[in-house]
Amino acid sequence: MRRFSLNLPALYAFLTELKFNNSKDWFDANRGRYQALRQEFIAFMGGVIQGVARTDPSVADVRAQDTLFRINRDVRFAHDKSPYKTTFSAAISPGGRHSTLPTYYLQLGADESLVAGGVYRPQAADLRIIRDYIQRYPASADALLTYKALAESFGGLGQSGMLKRFPRGYGEGSGLLKFRSFTVSAATDLAEAGDLSAFVVQKCADMQPLHAWLREALAYRKP
Hints:
This protein is α+β, with helices and mostly antiparallel strands. It contains eight helices and four strands.
């Protein structure tokens, strides 16, 4: 795998300064720094895609430039009118960065950096398909909740937004029925990161049991 390194001190400095100078005037004055870092990030993501494709060939043809999210914030309905995000972020999925398919997500930020994956808050139709699959195969769902690799690498599935009771229309069964998102995440300290590319690729490999399960679930049709 060909690896591309990021100038992490420069990236961290830029995002930290942006955090305290979040204005168009400051950004325009530092646009050259941003563009250089963005090109590095694109090259870095190209190397990550190559690494992830070794365990998930479905992403082999994803173009690095298509994985990046814009740094501009959508402030139309936001209370916070700061024009820029203080993160560089990207999502790898054969369906595109806004895909409803299982996705690998990377965020590098002034406050928080993480690697995450899975399906976050699936649309109602997809959530119903996943829950039907859980109801039909509860042992498979329970196994995912206790999967050793997910527990060791991510502390298990994220439980934010879980229901307190089983959803309407579903009898008691696997506790996974109470989930509204099916994701994992692992934080990293950008200021102390070592081989970030290797770290990201390994975390993406560690989440393969979740992505494989989600693909099966999303393809499920009730008999």
